[in-house]
Design a protein that fits this description.
- The structure is a homodimer.
- In chain A, the strands form 3 sheets. Chain A has a 6-stranded parallel β-sheet, sandwiched between helices. The first copy, chain A, has a 4-stranded parallel β-sheet with strand order 7-6-8-9, with helices on both faces. A two-stranded antiparallel sheet of chain A has the order 10-12.
- Chain A is built from 12 helices and 12 strands.
- In chain A, about 45% of the residues are buried.
- The structure holds a DNA duplex.
DNA sequence: ATGAAAGCGCTAACAT
DNA sequence: ATGTTAGCGCTTTCAT
């Protein structure tokens, strides 16, 4: 009915002070049973909805956190968002999702949201801080948790996986199937994550007593197209690899598509392993063997860490490493030695 | 440096009133050149960042709008989000993305965000209003724009596509390739969008002078698995269809995967058309013929409508219909009549 | 258990 | 062009 109902209207109606109404809402135990009921009746009668603007100004909190990713179009992030959101809702927080597309200006924009108090804190999944940001500066103190990616030379609470170990395991898996010529399609190697997976690949080869061959390593950019291009290079080698470990699922799918077009069947002629276990991995044909990370849990844990930080709890500089696991599907097979 | 710098600190430093500082920031033309510079210098000196909480309370606006979808995990929505976000940033608005997962409680939650003034308005892509919501009620007046989906019996500003016409065109496309037995895998028919696409399919058949056959219509739920199941049913028919129009891309991909596993090549033995042109459609094997909608533009337009509404401009009850187009790719081919 | 009163930081009348 | 003043709606001491 009324266009604008404030706490004062409720107070008047219930015959109490605004302070009592506020208490009845936020700290019911500090108000007598009878009063509480009277207040509730008044609230219903005038159709009162608390205006959080007033509260926010008073408490200097917005109840909103921002999840910053590079590319919101990447379905990979959505599962993490789910985890973050679920944990946030439990605590009455809202989650804003923003993406930077590697643009420095936008990276800063999200930081400014916190500085302007439009949000309380940040979960960073961009792999970098905005240029010029110094963690030590009191003036720029922004509650942050780094998820998934991690930052070199910066000590911030982090939730991540061990990319080296996971890649090593994936490579070992292929070696265990009898493969000897195992290629790797990596991500852009300036990025820490790509380097880690590449390092893991090398370590995996070494574990299996296999010599590395730089010709078997092709740089990509995590796109399906990059997987296609890499395939052309790899199949032209003499001898060609019998297995490929890709730094993500999209590139693995590109490899499979290109290989098939080149007349090489997967997994009969080429075993392919991806990384991430995106939704389509399971439904690809053939279903993709890949490395799964506990995305939802990562998101959840990141929010928990951030919430603790916001609540003023001593968090220290957490560095939580979540477990990964190989998901064997039909894109990999034992090497059939078809020597003459 | 300072933990908390307010507009008063700047005013003191610049030797002006807080009102002048506020003006220098928001209406620079109402302040003399000299003053403006002095204020700016003071701002830099004390490292002042405006606290939007104060402004929000004063202006009764948050500068935030919420994009409500059913399932945030559906990559289809992301392109729309991009359009919304881009248009929002131009206007200094932020976009919060929320998903309901068809849960009534959560549907209401986003409405309450606006009622509690945690957000200024809603872009609804859920295809329904929360239970009990009446557009007429002044008390629940919430700025809303409906995108993509539209609501029966409710007059709200809407940005959408013509699903009937698009489906009709898709069916006509298959008929134009010579197909006579054209099947349809629909979405859940209680939903308006699914019904529209089904109606369009029927109209398309009629256009081509083809008799409908209810056995050729299979209900799905927009999942890849549903596409797979539908395929089993369709291939068992006598004679089986030579073409399938699916109500979305995921189901089309399920159909293709299942057909191939059943020994039916696409498009040689079966032509398949999807709907939505999701990112993977282009990279599927074979690349999927589908109906593309201008997602980014839909998002952009929806935000423009909402922004106008928030600005108090007379919007009326807009009903904007955006154009769709068929994207021919390799999952469809002319029917080869292999009659004996 | 409840009330009175003082702001949180900002903007917008209204003056000058 | 600039200053004064009065809140926006809420929470939270501090009293009682």
């Amino acid at each position: 009915m009324a266009a604008k109902v404030t706490i004062a209207d409720v107070a008047r109606r219930a015959g109490v002070s605004t302070a009592t109404v506020s208490r009845a809402l936020k700290q019911p135990d500090r108000v007598s049973e009878a009063t509480r009921e009277r207040v509730q009746a008044a609230i219903d009668a005038v159709d009162y909805v608390p205006n959080s603007l007033g509260r926010n100004l008073r408490t200097q909190r917005t109840g909103t956190v921002v999840l910053v990713v590079r590319d919101i179009g990447n379905p990979f992030y959505l599962e993490i968002f789910r985890g973050v959101e679920a944990a946030a809702r439990e605590r009455g927080l809202s989650v804003l999702m923003g993406h930077t597309e590697n643009d420095a200006e936008r990276e800063r924009w999200y930081f400014d949201m916190v500085r302007e108090r439009r949000a309380d804190g940040l979960i960073l999944m961009t792999g970098k801080l905005p240029p010029g940001f110094r963690v030590t500066a009191r003036s720029t103190r922004v509650p942050i948790v780094v998820a998934l990616e991690y930052l070199e030379d910066v000590r911030l609470p982090t939730v991540r996986i061990d990319n080296v170990a996971a890649a090593r395991e994936a490579t070992a898996y292929l070696a265990g199937l009898g493969h000897r010529r195992i290629a790797h399609v990596s991500g852009p190697t300036p990025e820490l994550m790509s380097r880690d997976r590449l390092d893991g690949y090398r370590a995996g080869l070494a574990d299996a007593g296999l010599a590395g061959d730089e010709a078997l390593i092709v740089r990509g950019d995590y796109s399906m197209a990059a997987g296609r291009e890499a395939t052309a290079r790899l199949l032209a080698l003499e001898p060609p690899p019998t297995a490929v470990f890709c730094a993500n699922d999209e590139m693995a799918m590109g490899v499979i598509a290109a290989a098939r077009e080149a007349g090489v069947e997967v997994p009969a002629g080429l075993s392919v392993v991806g990384f991430d276990d995106i939704v389509f991995a399971r439904n690809f044909s053939p279903p993709l063997t890949t490395v799964a990370q506990p995305r939802q849990e990562i998101g959840q844990r990141a929010l928990e860490l951030l919430a603790a930080q916001l609540a003023g709890e001593p968090v220290g500089v957490a560095d939580e490493v979540m477990p990964t696991r190989i998901v064997p599907r039909a894109s990999t097979a034992e090497l059939v030695t078809s020597k003459t």
